[in-house]
Amino acid sequence: MKRAYELMVIIDSDVDDAGTVIARVAALIADEGGTVASTDDWGRRKFAYEIDHKTEGHYVVWEIVTSTAGLPVTERQLRLADEIVRHKLFRLPESEATRRGLLGEADPAAVAG
After folding, report:
1. Burial class of residue 50, CB neighbours in 10 A (0-12, 13-18, 19+)
2. Beta-strand runs (E) in the chain
3. CATH class of the domain whose range is 3-94
4. What is the Cα–Cα distance from 19 to 31, expressed in whole angstroms?
5. Which helix (H) or strand (E) is 16 found in, with range?
6. Could you report the per-residue pLDDT of 21-77, keeping only the tens digit for each?
7. Residue 69: what are its φ and ψ, rounded to 5°?
């Protein structure tokens, strides 16, 4: 059964090439059988409060479609990676995933309204 997830990652601001980290996370997702539907690179943003003595980080959001429940290998690797300040993976509700066009066909009336 296919499921849709959204993954947000905050990359440490000290990392020189965030593109390498972004590519590595996308590869982790693919290795676990997931498909990246979209990648939204928000760039460098200030934190609302200090995290690990840092005041800003590089934000990236992925929309993922996979049959692997919870992407456990990807989650573990993100927890262990020194260049990742924070990450959050959550499953999108079926209705929202369909509306975004990640699962099945989106209803044109729901997308327009």
Report:
1. exposed
2. 3-12, 35-51, 54-66, 84-91
3. alpha beta
4. 18
5. none
6. 999 999 999 999 999 999 999 999 999 999 989 999 999 999 999 988 889 999 999
7. -65, 115
